[in-house]
Amino acid sequence: MKNFFIILAMKILNIGLKIARKNGGNFLGKIAYDWNPEIFKYFKVDCPVIAVTATNGKTMTNNAIGYTLKQSGKKVVSNIEGNNMETGILSTILKNCTLTGKIKADYLCFEVDEGYVPVVFKDFRLDTLVILDFFRDQLDRNGEVESLILKINDFLKTYNGNLILNNDDPNVSRLGHANPDNNNVYYFSVERYKYATDTEKEAGEGKFCPFCKTKLEYEYYQYSHIGKFKCPNCNFGDNPIFKKATNIDLQNRKFEIDGNELKIKGNSIYLIYNFTAIYSVCSLYNIEIEDIKKAFSTFSLNNGRLEEVKINNTPTIINLAKNPTGANVSLRILNEDDEQKELLFVLNDNIADGHDVSWIWDINFNNLNNVSRIVTSGTRAYDIAIRIKVSGFPAEKIEPYLNLDEAVKAFYKTKVKKYVIANYTSLQPTRHALFSYKEGTKK
Ligand SMILES: [Zn+2]
Asked: What is the 3-state secondary structure (H, E, C) of 293-339?
C-alpha cells in the first residue's frame, strides 16, 4: 500500500510540475527514494531492460539505442534527459508507470552512472548491460577508477543477463570474467583505423593485466588506452568477438559490421565504438538491419556531443570534454581534419567540474594540425591558455577572455572553420553564447 501512495503522490506532483512547466529532473525520484529506498522492488516490468554505463559516451549511446528501437516501431521508455543516478532513473519510471507499478513499453533503456549500476539493479530487472569504457574522470583521484570497476565487478558476480563489453578497453573486457557461469557475455571490437598508433599517444589507464599484473602488449592504440591488447602471460584480452566494426572510413562517415555498410553523422573513432555497441544490442534483439541502417544514418548528434552547426556561416563543431580523454577525442577529430581551423576552449572550475583543473595537463596539445588561432574562456581561461602555450603552440596565437561573449565575438572575427571544446559546467553557457551570437548575426 505504501508504494501505491508514493506513486500516487508523485503522479500528482508531476501534474503540478507540468502545470508549472517544470521538468523536475530527478526531483520525483529523490522524494520517492527517500520515502522508500526499496521502491525499485515494487515495479512490474515484463519487457527487456537495457542499460548503458561508461565514463564517456553513455548519453549518446543510450539515446541512439532508444532511437534505433523506436525506428523499428517499438515503444521505448528512457531517461533521455540524462538523469543517470538512482533518483533520475526512478523519476523516469515514476512518470511512466501505472499506480500499481506496471510499466508498459517494449523496451526500457537507461543510461546509468558507473557508480549506480549496483544501486539501481539490485532490486530492478536488468536484461542487457552495455559497458563502453572507463577513463579517469575530472574529479577522480588515483585509484577511483579501479574502485568503480571493482564495484561493478562485484555486482556482475551474480549477474546472468546479457553483458556487452568493449573488448578493446582492458578496464571493460576484464569484467567478462566476473561471473564464469554467465554464458551471455558478448565482446565487441573495432578494427584498426587510419590514425591508430603503435605507441600510446594520450594518457590512459589499463597498462597492466588485472589478473597477473604483467604489462599488457598492444598491437595498436585507437585512442587513449583503447586498442588491440593482450596479456603475454595469461592471454587476457584474447576473447571471441561477437561484433566487429571493419573498413572504418571516417572521412566518408561509414564503416561495416557483418558485411553491412553503416553510415553515421559523425566522424570520430570514439563514435564507431559506440555504434558497434548499439549494433550489438540491436542484433541480440533481432532488430531488422534496414531499421538499424536507417536509424544510424539519421541519428543526430546534438547538445554539445560532437554537435555540428553553422554560426556566422562558419562550420562549427562543439564537443563536451569532462576529462582528458574527452578533450583528446575532440583534438583527434580536429587533427584528422586537414583544413585550416581555429579552436575555442572553455574551461570552468565549478563544483561539478572539480576545482582542481590539473587534468588539463593530460590533454595532448602537441603538433596541432593546421590550427591558426586558439581562443580560451571560462573561469580558468588563463590556466588553459598557459597549458596550450607550454605544449609549444605560439603564444601570440592564443587569446584568453574571461568573458564568454567577448570570447565568442573574437572567435568569429574570421571565417575559418571552428572547433569548440567545453568542459562540464561550461558546455551549456558556451552553447548559449554561440547560439545568441548566431541569432545576433542574422539581424
Ligand atoms: Zn595476465
From this structure: HHHHHHCCCCCCCCEEEEECCEEEEEEECCCHHHHHHHHHHHHHCCC
What is the Cα–Cα distance from 318 to 344, expressed in whole angstroms? 9
- The predicted model scores a pTM of 0.93
Q: How far is the CA of 169 from the centre of ligand 1 (A)?
A: 14
Please give the distance, rounded to the nearest whole angstrom, from the Cα atom of residue 188 to the centre of ligand 1: 20
**CA 228 – ligand 1 centroid, Å:** 15
Residue 234 CA, ligand 1 centroid: distance in Å: 4
Residues of the chain with pLDDT under 50: 142, 443
Q: Which residues contact 17 (CB under 8 A, 6 or more apart)?
A: 23, 24, 27, 28
For 2-298, CATH number out of 3.50.50.60, 3.40.1190.10, 3.40.50.720, 3.40.50.300 equals 3.40.1190.10
Q: Which fold has domain 307-442?
A: Protein-Tyrosine Phosphatase; Chain A (3.90.190)
For the segment 143-173, what is each residue's pLDDT rounded down to a tens digit?
688 899 999 999 999 999 999 999 999 999 9
With contact defined as beta carbons under 8 Å apart, do 260 and 279 qualify?
Answer: no
Domain boundaries, the chain: 2-298, 307-442
230 Cα to the center of ligand 1, angstroms: 8
